[in-house]
Amino acid sequence: MPATAVEEALGTGRRKSSVARVRVRAGSGKITINKRALDDFFKVQQDRNAVVSPLEHCEARDSVDVIIRVHGGGTTGQAGACMQGIARALLKHDSDLSEKLREKQFLTRDSRMKERKKPGLHGARRGTQFSKR
């Protein structure tokens, strides 16, 4: 464990309407999401890759255990929330990783949200079908 390391670090990640609370501690590389394994929780490979990307980039995949509680939104939003939460927790766990995490923008919140529905329209922008007669 590096000199600037903490035993157990907490991080919160958000994406769309998903919120992930992440706990990182020294270990063997086990990732648990809502008391389930990573491969069991995220069925799509793209989502699994997003979750482990901060760990892979910092070369900490096999040296820390990650416990995540995530709720809200869909699978892509939850994967993005987990990614940001892991990055924030890694930063608290080892403050030397700041530059590595920032260069791939793992610490930046993706602020894109769903646009609200407007009155008189079918969705945010879709209007009614035009009728000539």
Structural topology:
Elements: E1 8-15, E2 18-26, E3 31-33, E4 36-37, H1 38-41, H2 45-57, E5 64-71, H3 75-93, H4 98-103
Parallel strand pairs: 3-5
Antiparallel strand pairs: 1-2, 2-5, 3-4
Helix pairs in contact: 2-3
Describe the overall structure.
The chain is an alpha+beta fold and 133 residues long. It has one domain: Ribosomal Protein S5, domain 2 (2-Layer Sandwich), CATH 3.30.230. 32% of the residues lie in helices and 23% in strands. It has helices spanning 38-41, 45-57, 75-93, 98-103; strands at residues 8-15, 18-26, 31-33, 36-37, 64-71. It has a 5-stranded mixed beta sheet with strand order 1-2-5-3-4. Helix 2 packs parallel to helix 3 (75-93). The longest helix is centred in the middle third of the chain and has 19 residues, at 75-93. The N and C termini lie far apart (75 Å).
The biggest sheet, with number of strands, parallel, antiparallel or mixed sense and barrel status, is: 5 strands, mixed
Number of helices: 4
Number of structural domains: 1
CATH architecture: 2-Layer Sandwich
Here the CATH topology equals Ribosomal Protein S5, domain 2
**What helical percentage do the residues reach?**
25-40%
CATH class: Alpha Beta
Provide a concise account of the structure shown.
The protein has four helices and five strands.
Task: Considering the chains and any ligands shown, give keywords for the structure.
4 helices; Ribosomal Protein S5, domain 2; elongated; 133 residues; five-stranded mixed β-sheet
